[in-house]
From TrEMBL:
One of its GO terms (biological process) is carbohydrate metabolic process. PANTHER family: BETA-GLUCOSIDASE. GO terms for molecular function: beta-glucosidase activity. Residues 589-659 form the Fibronectin type III-like domain. Belongs to the glycosyl hydrolase 3 family. This is Glycosyl hydrolase. It comes from Mediterraneibacter faecis. Keywords: Hydrolase.
Length: 765
């Protein structure tokens, strides 16, 4: 509907009708105004499947929803590093929403993985904001191409489940901009999501639902968001303040209570009615965007979408280890499938994203229909039961026996439902003790042991050195079994890469000392050093680094070129590199480009991911992958100018296998085009002034005029004839010396002369 018509529609509404549009009708529906033709619409939980509930509604996945398709969770799809694949997932979800008359799906979930302990990490994409915003953007693009709204969440800094309704995420401006806002920024600017869901938590003491800086200043004015903002379910604090801040819709229903607060605020003058009008216009624009593009012929194609779920998961699986090229398995091998998850896989997390899958495909189901494998070559032993972490000696003994009588043992292990879910955080990185013990026992009986992991976040692997291969399947959706079997037997070549670091232990994580917080304050003292930014900067050993993943083929890199070596920050840089498949089978490689500042005055990570591309290569094939970098590739957030800033200096363009393995590099020189405002005082240091070309000239002139009566220079007057202070020490002292100290150390210098010097320095600026 045209903007003018929407404005006209709002003008015909009563104050009470306008206020009514600011809250839900019930748990899943928005309100309508029947007399004006404004419809009530349904929204539904996601983000990796359609959790549509009609009756017995809840927000934690307790009650059943319609039978639908569960796709791989965000932890898995991010590992695909494939924008096109995630776009296809979005298109499929959009078609399902059209078929079920759902106007918007609540997702994607795209908070940064600050700690591997966050109970909801299985829904989130990455510890890296570029991967997060690119993967989320691809999903949003796919869904909205089918005229269905998305609601990226949880905006922002929702990085823990502990006290998520009351906790305040305390962070500085730079950390916010470079990590936590950057996770949303690219997606919002490029894909224009129809809605945004704000987080439960506070940001620096202010609830996100009433945070004007985030919802209006950043989201709308700076990034150009033009949809409506809704609360997470039950996240409203102060309704009138939230409306002023830019929060349009409270969900679920408030039973009219906060609608009345809005009416009263307008009537007593504490809320300008124009704010309410604008909110209604933003809301109606989205409602009619859906209503005018309804596809009444859409059909939910369950079986087709199940195949799509399997196709997606095949590209998400990460091959973490493959000693002696044990994988892929040959069809004639006798294989023991061990572990409960081989028969009943754990393929999704708990909480609001829980899907009522119309069917589940386990590895045992899938291998039954694998034509190349003889069924008598496959045996199954349950091995463990994950209801509680308690070893079952009888089950374990049968598993060990099955493994010993086979050529290969494949153990399906991971985290049970109780270990990770919305609503609470993990206590440790360990898998259940009974599973670890089983893996150790099986590996001792069968040297050719493979572990397949079903988990939503990193785990410790105390048995890693005793098994020959590890596949990270993550929470791979309802078709995970078929995808895993296809990878095990080489029908699919694993091409996933870790979108998060697997640390050796929880004590190594950057926020270990502060995670969870105290007194409902969680202080982000690690700043921008999140995930690999921390581990690489400290040259710290990890279990598996960010970006890591193996393949059944091999790749080589060469001919890294940049189209210029020196340039101004406003100029684009074209980077190209040749990638060759040097193995015997077709595979996909994730080309990762990092930028490493070589010096500068700002404390920064040693390298940061700035571009990536996934490319498919046949054996012997070479492709040239080209990236275009703009100024953001070199910029940091400057808190003095409250904007992105590029420091003049050298930067290394690095092509990496993963965050810790640099393959090729080229150094470039970037010239800043922004002059930072500078105000000098008597506390400004000599080094600070000398670093400024204008300041250097003025200071040198002033110092020559301040020479002593005997003609000695200022530096000579400060020399120590005893030899205790050498030249290096003198240089360091001079660099760090504030101007005011010249009063103490340089005879004849007056405060008046120094004030004149400061005035001259500031005039030059």
């Amino acid at each position: 509907m045209e903007t003018a018509k929407i404005k006209e529609l709002v003008s015909r509404m009563t104050l009470e009708e306008k206020a009514s549009l600011c809250s839900g009708l019930d748990f899943w529906h928005t309100k309508g105004v029947e007399r004006l033709g404004i419809p009530s619409e349904m929204v539904s939980d996601g983000p990796h499947g359609l959790r549509k509930q009609d009756d017995k509604a809840d927000h934690l996945g307790i009650n059943d929803s319609i039978q639908a398709v569960c796709f791989p969770a965000g932890c898995a799809t991010a590992s695909s590093f494939n924008r096109e694949l995630v776009t296809k997932l979005g298109e499929t979800l959009g078609e399902e929403c059209q078929a079920e008359n759902v106007s918007a799906i609540l997702g994607p979930a795209m908070n940064i993985k600050r700690s591997p302990l966050c109970g909801r990490n299985f829904e989130y994409y990455s510890e890296d904001p570029l991967v997060s915003t690119e993967m989320a953007g691809a999903l949003v693009h796919g869904v909205q191409s089918k005229h269905i709204g998305t609601s990226p969440k949880h905006f922002m800094a929702n990085n823990q489940e502990y006290h998520r309704l009351t906790s305040s995420s305390e962070m500085d401006e730079r950390t916010m901009r470079e990590i936590y806002l950057a996770s949303f920024e690219g997606m919002v600017k490029k894909e224009k999501p129809w809605t945004i869901m704000n987080a439960y938590n506070k940001l620096n003491g202010t609830y996100l639902c009433e945070n004007k800086e985030m919802l209006t200043d950043v989201l709308r004015r700076e990034w150009g968001f033009d949809g409506y903002v809704m609360t997470d379910w039950g996240a409203m604090n102060d309704r009138v303040e939230a409306l002023k801040a830019g929060c349009n819709l409270e969900m679920p229903s408030c039973e009219g209570a906060t609608d009345a607060e809005i009416v009263a605020a307008v009537q007593d003058g504490t809320l300008d009615e124009s704010v309410l009008d604008k909110s209604c216009e933003e809301y109606l624009n989205v409602i009619f965007k859906y209503e005018e593009n309804r596809d009444k012929n859409a059909v939910f194609q369950h079986e087709k979408d199940h195949e799509t779920a399997r196709e997606i998961e095949e590209e998400c699986i990460v091959l973490l280890k493959n000693e002696d090229a044990l994988l892929p398995l040959s069809a004639d091998k006798k294989v023991a499938f061990i572990g409960k998850y081989a028969e009943k896989p754990r393929y999704q997390g708990g909480g609001s994203s829980h899907i009522n899958s119309f069917k589940t495909e386990s590895a045992m189901d899938a291998v039954e229909f694998l034509a190349t494998v003889k069924k008598e070559n496959i045996t199954f032993a349950k091995g463990f039961d994950d209801v509680e972490d308690k070893a079952d000696e009888a089950l374990a003994a049968k598993a060990v026996e099955a493994a010993a009588n086979a050529d290969v043992a494949v153990i399906f292990a991971g985290l049970p439902d109780s270990f990770e879910s919305e609503g609470y955080d993990r206590k440790h990185l360990g898998m259940p003790n009974c599973q670890n013990a089983l893996i150790e026992a099986v590996a001792e009986a069968q040297p050719n042991t493979i572990v397949v992991l079903h988990n939503g976040a990193p785990v410790e692997m105390p048995w890693l050195g005793k098994v020959k291969a590890v596949l990270e399947a993550y929470l791979g959706g309802q078709a995970v079994g078929g995808a895993v079997v296809n990878v095990l037997y080489g029908n699919a070549n694993p091409s996933g890469r870790l979108a998060e670091t697997f640390p050796l232990r929880i004590q190594d994580t950057p926020c270990y000392l502060n995670y969870g917080g105290e007194h409902d304050k969680s202080v982000y003292s690690e700043g921008v050093f999140v995930g690999y930014r921390y581990y690489t900067s400290k040259e710290m050993e990890v279990l598996f680094p960010f970006g890591y993943g193996l393949s059944y083929t091999t790749f080589s890199y060469g001919n890294l070129t940049v189209d210029k070596k020196e340039f101004k920050e406003s100029e684009k840089l074209l980077v190209s590199v040749d990638v060759t498949n040097t193995g015997a089978c077709t595979g996909k490689e994730v080309v990762q480009l990092y930028v490493a500042p070589k010096g500068g005055t700002i404390i920064r990570p040693v390298r940061e991911l700035k571009a990536f591309e996934k490319t498919e290569l046949a054996p012997g094939e070479t492709k040239t992958v080209t990236f275009e970098l703009d100024s953001r590739a070199y910029a940091y957030w400057n808190t003095e100018i409250h904007d992105w800033h590029v420091e003049t200096g050298a930067y290394e363009i690095q092509i990496c296998r993963n965050a810790q393995e640099v393959l090729l590099s080229e150094e470039v020189q970037v010239e800043s085009e922004t002059v930072l405002p500078k105000v000098y005082t008597l506390n400004s240091t000599m080094g600070e002034i000398m670093a400024d070309p204008k300041g250097k000239a003025i200071l040198e002139q002033a110092m020559s005029e301040m020479e002593g009566m005997d003609g000695e220079s200022t530096e000579e007057q400060m020399q120590d004839d005893s030899g205790v202070i050498n030249d290096e020490m003198m240089a360091a002292m001079m660099e760090a010396m504030p101007l005011r100290q010249m009063l103490s150390f340089v005879p004849g210098v007056t405060k008046e002369a120094l004030n004149q010097l400061v005035a001259a320095l500031n005039a030059a600026e």
